[in-house]
Amino acid sequence: MTRFTSVTPNLVVRDLARSLAFYRDVLGFTISMSVPEAPSYVFVGLERDSVPVFLNDVKAAVEDYPAMASTPPGGTATMFFIVTDVDALHEVVAPRAPIVMPLKTQFYGMREFAVTDPDGHVITLAQRVAGD
User: Fold this and answer.
1) Which residue in 49, 73, 123, 52 sits closest to 93, CA to CA?
2) Are the C-beta atoms of 74 and 119 separated by less than 8 Å?
3) Most buried in the list 34, 44, 69, 103, measured by CB within 10 Å?
4) pLDDT of residue 46
């Protein structure tokens, strides 16, 4: 039987340079691969602490996925990142990104907040907290 071995968010973006700046400068990701190897990129693979994210320029993505031509980037999918110190990350990220959910402890045992990237992708950053 086929096994799934990993998943990587592959985000379609309107302005790859702008999105790269957000993921690199606000969230702390680094480039692990790119096409082409130097700017102007049409694709970048990013990584932080072994967690990957791909960014695809919308014009390049439409070549492989023509149905995307009529769909704006962003959509309704969200990303949920588990981190080790959500409060410290909130201090760094909150002044630099639109907050769409304030930092709070949820009933399901996660302390989390959410931001949007330049294309409207919702990113939740969360940490498991000790139960009562």
Assistant:
1) 123
2) yes
3) 44
4) 98
